[in-house]
Design brief:
Layout: H1 30-56, H2 63-96
Amino acid sequence: MSVSGVNSGLIKINQNSFQKVESNSTKTSFANVLQGYLENVDTTVKQASDLTIKAAAGEIDNIHDVTIASQKAKVALELTVTIRDKAVEAYQEMMRMQF
């Protein structure tokens, strides 16, 4: 009985669509990941704003695209605010620690 090794190639770990990770860098710092996420959130909000302006001007026939873009921007902003609140809460908790 022969048992061969299982090797399906490389596994991509960072598959989040909101996360901008450069594949050529060997080190990714937390600051770079956070900056990439914030840039993607900003882009999402700007796209939703642009679509809303075009819809108000009558340039868009399908209002569903505007609604979907607005909801994506809303969820992205809510997630960003939640992350910020948790980071502030963690910082305050560390400041209360006695050494």
